[in-house]
Fold this protein.
Amino acid sequence: MRIDRSSLSKALILAEFYNILREANNFGITIRLVGDNVTAKIKGREFILDKETAPSVVAEAIYQSHGVFIVKGKDVVDVGAYVGDTSIYYYLYGKAKHVYALEPFPYLYDKGMQLIKKNKLAKFISFFNNGVSGEKGTTKILESKTNFDKVGVNKSDSEGRLVKIVSLDEFVKKYNIHNAFLKVDCEGCEYSIFQKISKKTLQRFVGIHIEYHYGYMDLISRLKKEGFDIIYTKPVYIFRGVGKKPMISGDIIAFRKKSILNLNSINKIHNKVIL
């Protein structure tokens, strides 16, 4: 559950928090609130959160929208990690061996690092203030920026923190990632990534979960060419996207063998098409 906090009032943010709090009780998740500090007990473990990060972390635990793969004992690369909500989900529920989380927006990255440190998760989750694209480079992003936007080498704020843009080719080679899972939710950068990614790098992944934002055909074509079977959802909503461009969004689940699929989660997906 991701909210553009630059466009919402404080009252709406609080409403979101209290709505999640009520939902959590129905799923056996207990939340304690003392001032701005939030403690959530999820699967028997207490997490130290705050009013901004609690909704997304707890929502992942409730809805488990990223539980499409059985990731137990394997590495996960989390592109577009936000505040680490999906990374925590992969560790806590998926029992992943290690999660490599990449988030370009400094504000969100800093929030994520606070969660990792406060909850002593650095052994299981490595957090990087990096964007991912088909080409390497740098960009500047305002420290206060929290809206979701495509980040790339040729797109930069005039001021802000200098953020490194990496390619998946260099990243998986540097960290010796093999037989792993990949999640991509980066507001449009997925097209550049999969246009440029090498066949050798794609072979390092057994499953890929992509949230697409401007259509799916090119992405599916590339993944099928490299030997993946595909489940995708038809676009179910259109709204004003990045740069006033209409956004057509959905999910692609690419896999090399059916045994890695979490069928309980797959069966919950509506409007899915299997190729």
User: Anything to note?
Assistant: The chain has two domains: 1-63, 65-274.
